[in-house]
Each structure stands twice: as structure tokens, then as C-alpha cells.
Amino acid sequence: MRIAVYPGSFDPLTNGHLDLIRRATRLFDRVFISVLENEGKSPLFTVAERVELIARCTADVPGVEVHSFSGLLVDFMQRMRATVVIRGIRAVSDYEYELQMALMNRELHPGMETIFMLPAVEYTYVSSRVVKEVFRLGGDVARLVPPLVLESLKARLPVTVG
Ligand code: PNS
Fold first, then answer.
1. Whose CA is nearest to atom 17 of ligand 1?
2. Which atom of ligand 1 is the closest one to the Cα of 34?
3. Residue 127 near residue 89, CB atoms below 8 Å
4. Candidates 3.20.20.140, 3.90.1150.10, 3.40.50.620, 3.40.50.300; correct CATH number of 3-156?
5. Whose alpha carbon is nearest atom 3 of ligand 1?
């Protein structure tokens, strides 16, 4: 059984994440989307809300499970019997941070492999941070997030149009 973990903050899930999830499920039997419990980042959605949103948005994607984790990713992966980490790379600017994490994870657990995947080109500029900022300022993000996430943003964030 080939198991991959796709870890992240997912605050919130974007269509770029969803695109990567669909691609990863073609390569692995199981893809565990794993939401980091990191309250230090003052997220917009709680971990439980993010887990539920991701689960609902991926209900039609076979092989996906949604989890949350705290502590080291490599420890969580060992508990889940996973040896592959999936991370998305959008632009060269992502690479430095991703390289550092991948090498640190390998240092901590030499059996761990990180696979970098490219999202569809139309999502290469999409990030959770940009989606929140544009939505907050009244911009249209309907093409960039799943409909359920858009609804949740509307319910959560006041729009301030300058
Ligand atoms: O979506 P993000 O915020 O870029 O995801 C970052 C994440 C969750 C993959 C990373 O912060 C992580 O794995 N944190 C767990 C702590 C850990 O294992 N750190 C060592 C690797 S540098």
C-alpha cells in the first residue's frame, strides 16, 4: 500500500491544493491530507473547521483521508506508516523553504522522501494568504477556492472595501 502525506496549514483549502490532491491520488493508494495544529499562526479557521471543509471538498476523491497532527511531521508519518511527503511547488520562490523542510525531514528520518508536485498552471499564483487578503478587500476569489470554502469565507470574514 503506497501512502503519502500531504501536510499543510490549509487555511483555507484552495483550488490549487485540490488540484494537487487529485494528482497525488493518481500516484498513491492513500493520500492523508494532514492539517498542522499550529495555533501560533492565528488562523482564520480552526483545525476542526479546516479538517471538515477539506473532508467535504474531497468527498468525491477516492483514497483521501483527512487528519490533523501536532509535533514533528516525521513522527506523525511514522505513526501513520507513511514514508512519502507531498508538497506543492508553485514558483522558484517556494523552493528554498521547501528544500530546507525536505532536507530537515530527511535528517530526522532518513527513510522519508519528499515529492514536489506542480499544480495546474492556472493556480500557480494562488495561496491561502492571497485568497484571504483579496476576499477581505472585496475581490472575487470564486475561481480560486471550492464553493464550500467561498461560503465559509463569506460567513467568517467581513469584507472591507476601501
Ligand atoms: O502550508 P504550510 O504552512 O506551508 O505547511 C507547513 C508544514 C505544516 C508542512 C510544516 O510547518 C510542518 O511540517 N510542520 C510540522 C513541524 C515539523 O515537522 N517541522 C520540521 C520540518 S522543518
1. 72
2. 8
3. no
4. 3.40.50.620
5. 9
Q: Which residues have C-beta within 8 Å of that of residue 41, sequence separation ≥ 6?
A: 9, 11
CA of 20 to the centre of ligand 1 (A): 17
Grid coordinates belonging to 26: 493518481
Q: What is the per-residue pLDDT across 3-13, written as a single tens digit (0 to 9) for each?
A: 999 999 999 99
Q: Each residue of 106-140: pLDDT tens digit?
A: 999 999 999 999 999 999 999 999 999 999 999 99
Find the 132 Cα to ligand 1 centroid distance in Å: 20
SS3 percent helix, strand, coil of the chain, rounded to 5, is 45, 20, 35
Within 13 Å of residue 158, how many CA atoms lie on the same side as its CB?
Answer: 2
Residues with CB under 6 A from ligand 1: 7-9, 36, 72-73, 101, 104-105
Cell of 68: 490533523
Spell out the residues 6+ positions from residue 162 whose beta carbon is closer than 8 angstroms to its own.
Answer: 137
Beta bridge partners of 69: 36
